[in-house]
Amino acid sequence: MTRRLSNTADGPKRSCTLVLAGGAPRSYSPGLRMSTQSPPGFPHRHLLGIEGLSPLDIVALLDRADEAVEISRQVEKKRTTLRGRTQINLFFEPSTRTQSSFELAGKRLGADVMNMSVASSSVKKGETLIDTAATLNAMRPDIIVVRHHQAGAVHLLARKVDCAVVNAGDGAHEHPTQALLDALTIRRNKGRIEGLQVAICGDVLHSRVARSNIILLMALGARVRVIGPSTLLPPGLQRFGVEVFTDMRKGLAGVDIVMMLRLQRERMNGSFVPSVKEYFRYFGLDGDKLSHARADALVMHPGPMNRGVEISSEVADGAQSLIREQVEMGVAVRMAVLEALATHLPNA
Q: What is the DSSP string of 15-42?
């Protein structure tokens, strides 16, 4: 299972052999690493995107997250990794699952967690992002988790503070922890990522999830297809090395993973689809369209789902769906990211 790169619900225990370029084979088996060795070090001070991470960096985070899954399934879930540390969740966009997931991850690692409500903050009174960064920096936090509606805003903030920064989604740019939790979910259910055929379907144009997933999956050796109406596909997608389809049934033929995307109407200026009904007819995932994928294909969705728009209830709640498991993996991945970044904090 080797590949050299040119571009940048848990079932029974499985194991497979993973070989990265220049590395030696090693086995992967969920949950078996806890008593054997510590995860390798993570060389980055921040997590601002999947772009810039090596395959080894990604695998190291996934291995840490495997351990966090086992911790989260114990009665005693608390650890002391971040005891005495302060984590600020700074969300400029509404969020339920991502913010609560980061909050729970921080608390399970022992951090003091503060959720900053931008709706009632000084930002609404005209304070700039740089001023907000300076104010927060003066409070001496150890980790800031940021979601912002503008692409690049998290990178700017990271240059203005002394602590670690995690990108929880910036505009249509990246959402690194979502891509990591998706990869963890796939790896735990399929035993591997390399060689799998993954279809990312729907509103790719406005999706930070799609971009992060394409970069990560290609880095780990998956073959990626992108499916959607031409109005929701950004130009130049082929440069990423993906296959592009505008016919759902043709695009799903023989795939291992079907990853649906939310139709992000709040980011649309103008008419990108004739109607929600028409969109579901041609690009919503139902049993008929799913039947064109492999018989053992698995279905994913980053949430929140719009039932009857991107996906039918039959599929979302069916035996092939991993959507609930993705939520569990989200907490584990965010624990892994916070723990990895903590190794670079002062007095770590």
A: -EEE--TT---EEE-TT-STTT-PPPPP
Decide if pLDDT at 14 tops 80: no
List 224's β-bridge partners, or say none: 198
Taking only the tens place, the pLDDT of each residue in 249-290 is 999 999 999 999 998 755 545 567 768 889 999 999 999 999
Using alpha carbons, select from 188, 189, 154 the residue that is nearest to residue 173: 154
CA–CA distance, 347 with 343 (Å, rounded to integer): 9
pLDDT at res. 183? 98
pLDDT at 38 over 60: no
Distance CA 56, CA 66 (A): 15
Strand pairing partners for 299? 258, 321
Burial class (CB within 10 angstroms; exposed 0-12, middle 13-18, buried 19+) of 226: buried
User: Residues 6 or more apart from 19 whose CB is under 8 A from it?
Assistant: 1, 2, 25, 26
Which class for 97: exposed (0-12), middle (13-18), buried (19 or more C-beta within 10 A)? Answer: middle
Side-chain-side CA neighbours of 134 within 13 Å: the count stands at 5
Q: Are 283 and 227 spatial neighbours (Cβ–Cβ below 8 Å)?
A: yes
Beta-carbon contacts of residue 27 (< 8 Å; ≥ 6 apart): 15, 16, 17, 18
User: How far is CA 346 from its chain centroid?
Assistant: 27
Rg of the chain in Å (alpha carbons): 20
Give exposure, 323-335, as e/b (b: 16+ Cβ within 10 Å).
bebbebbbbbbbb
DSSP string, 177-233: HHHHHHHHHHHHHHS--TT-EEEEES--TT-HHHHHHHHHHHHTT-EEEEE--GGGS
pTM of the predicted structure, to 2 decimals: 0.87
